[in-house]
Structure prediction request, 124 residues.
Amino acid sequence: VQLVESGGGSVQAGGSLRLSCAASRITYSTRCMAWFRQAPGKEREGVTAIYTTGGTTDYADSVKGRFSISQDNAKNTVYLQMNSLKPEDTAMYYCAATPWSCGGNWADKDKYGHWGQGTQVTVS
Prediction:
C-alpha cells in the first residue's frame, strides 16, 4: 500500500488547513489509518486515527475539538481537517496505515507498517 499526503503549507495562527492521504487501495492493510506529526527535535506523536471499516475515530487530547479525521472510501482517501491552528501544531505530518484495528494503542507508531512521505505544516 502506498500513501501520499498533500495539503500542507504555511498558515497564520487561528487558520485552517486540510490534509489529504491518498492510499493506492483500501484493503485489510489499511484497516486503521492515522495521522502522526513530528516537530524538529521531538518524537513522532499520534494525532488522530480512523477505523476505516467502522468509522470510529480517536484523537490526541491536544487536538480534540480542533482537528477532524474523515474518509472517502470511493477515493481511497483520508482527510485531516485542522482548524484553530496554533504555532505548536507546526510539524511534519505523516499518514500511516495498519491492518490491525485502531484500538487503545492507536497512537503507537510501531503499530503501523505503511507510511507516507509527509507534508509540512507551519503555523506562525
